[in-house]
Design goal:
The chain is of the alpha+beta class and 256 residues long. The protein contains 6 helices and 9 strands.
Amino acid sequence: MPATTKTTHRGHTITFTEADHTYIDDQGHHYTSVTTVAGRYLPMFDAPATAARMESQGRGNAADLQAQWKATADAACAFGTRCHAVAEDTLLARPQRNTPTTDRERSAFRAVWQFCTERLMVPAVQILGVEEVVFSPALYIAGTIDLLANINGTPWVLDWKTNEAIPREGFRGEMALPPVSDMPACAWTKYIIQLGLYERILREQGHVHPLSQIRRGLLWVHDAPAGWTVDILEIPSATLATANILLDHLSTDIPF
């Protein structure tokens, strides 16, 4: 994706800057990203406290543990970004910008490329948008949809993920924060909220008919027993949870 992207819809223009992940419209209004909104409702991992507790239990040095966790997270993020770039370049028929540097990357990149060419670039699929920036001037939220596609006549909102696992339960039964405290605190819940917010923007801004069915899914790139593959994990609808989160967002983020 370019370092800066301008998108105009219904007379409003918004600029997305990748470096600091900001969305600002032509009136100077800052929009909260969909991923930021979705992440607010999961308890934050307290790395310093956890590392200190582990050190007190003789399970390592706190500073070393935190450095190790950060290095692991940074490596996972870089891997995901590079897999994502393979998909983007393939679907947009551009030269591949990345060359695999490990056998793991080569296998993952091949799986992404094969999925794009064999499952997405076919007559039954109409690609509506790749890295599609969408935004709501009414809600002051914006986001970038990895892939918007019409599959067999139905619009799909799709998001690439390269997590080793996608938990559907909270650690030790932990739950999300109000107003969605009836949902488990896990990645699956975050993705339900994230794609639900994308759907809300698409409907509100007329990208799709208000009454049309929209399906949501993750394109999960992972190392399965038979080798690297991409699975579509359909995300359930959560209309009420999305509405409650937007009410909370409007009551805390909009200063008027």
